[in-house]
Specification:
Elements lengths: L1 E4 L2 E4 L11 E5 L2 E6 L1 H7 L2 E8 L4 E9 H9 L8 E6 L6 E3 H6 L2 E7 L6 E4 L5 E4 L4 E4 L5 H5 L9 E7 L1 H4 L11 H13 L5 E2 L2 E2 L12 H4 L2 H9 L20 H15 L11
Parallel strand pairs: 3-13
Antiparallel strand pairs: 1-2, 2-5, 3-4, 5-6, 6-9, 7-8, 7-13, 9-12, 10-11, 14-15
Helix pairs in contact: 6-9, 8-9
Length: 279
């Protein structure tokens, strides 16, 4: 059964079967609720949403739950006062996205393709890797937003199994550049947060999908500058069959962004801290 409201198609029931395990919702490290996809369907109405799929470079239509009513039901209005939201994926990907982005743009949790095909995609950004998307995939209503389109796949984690309200400095205490770091390095820190943190760690802080970049030996200490630049801009030009995606070509002033990320990495090479061991 389908109904239409505000240009979106509403679905009477979610079409999912392959993923129905619990998704953990946390508030500054404390678990608030653990909910299944079935539970989410009792909180928010499912809709059909067309987006530009940055991982495939084409439009896709997903079955989705709007994020805001879910957050309000789970966390109350306090979620709007949080600084960041960290999403942890089953594959170790872990982006930290400012709450301001959720207040400025409409975000959704996709849980199925609208045509009921397997909930997967071929990620052209990662060597055409076939990836599972469930249980939840964070997408944005980006077709009418140049800012979201320019961000590419940034802020679009799939395989989401945990959602946490947090403050960036307390969640990632070892990422900030030294106080005396140059303005270029400070800008690079912001770019790293947005484009690199989800996969890589600095001093043990960040995502668990890709290698540590600073401790005990910084990447700037063993890669020549020209190769580090190429690695960020086009990893496939350095390493055959790599699944590391290039920095999104849609990013304005892309070459400058790369230079600033490298400036941040150089600054952090003087601020090494031993990563804490996982409990």
């Amino acid at each position: 059964m389908f109904a239409v409201l505000g240009g979106n198609t509403f679905l009477s029931a979610p079409a999912f079967s392959q993923h129905n395990s619990g998704i953990e919702f946390k508030d500054h490290g404390q678990t608030v609720k653990t909910l299944s996809l079935t539970d989410l369907g009792t909180i928010a109405a499912a809709v059909s949403l067309k987006v530009f799929e940055a991982h495939e470079k084409k439009e896709r239509t997903y079955q989705v739950y709007p994020v805001r009513p879910l957050f309000e039901h789970i966390f109350g209005k306090k979620w709007e006062q949080a600084e960041e939201i960290v999403f942890t994926s089953a594959d170790g990907y872990q982006p930290s996205i400012p709450v301001a982005r959720f207040l400025a743009h409409d975000a959704y949790f996709a849980f199925a393709h609208a045509d009921d095909t397997p909930f997967t995609l071929v990620n052209v950004l990662q060597n055409d890797e076939l990836v599972q998307l469930g249980p939840l995939y964070l997408v944005w209503d980006n077709l009418q937003s140049k800012a979201l389109l320019d961000d590419g796949a940034s802020g679009m984690p799939y395989q989401v199994i945990s959602v946490e309200l947090t403050a960036f400095a307390s969640r990632f205490p070892n990422l900030s550049p030294p106080a005396q770091a140059s303005p270029q390095a400070q800008y690079g820190f912001l770019h790293f947060r947005k484009h690199c943190l989800a996969c890589h760690t600095i001093n043990g802080d960040g995502g668990g999908k890709a290698p540590e970049l600073n401790y005990p030996t910084s990447v700037v200490e063993y890669l020549k500058p020209e190769y580090l630049t190429r690695w960020i801009e086009n990893p496939a030009s350095v390493r055959y069959n790599t699944v590391m995606p290039p920095l999104a070509k849609e990013i304005p002033n892309r070459a400058q962004v790369v230079e600033e990320i490298i400036a941040y990495l150089k600054a952090m090479s003087t601020a090494k801290r031993m990563p804490k061991k996982a409990p």
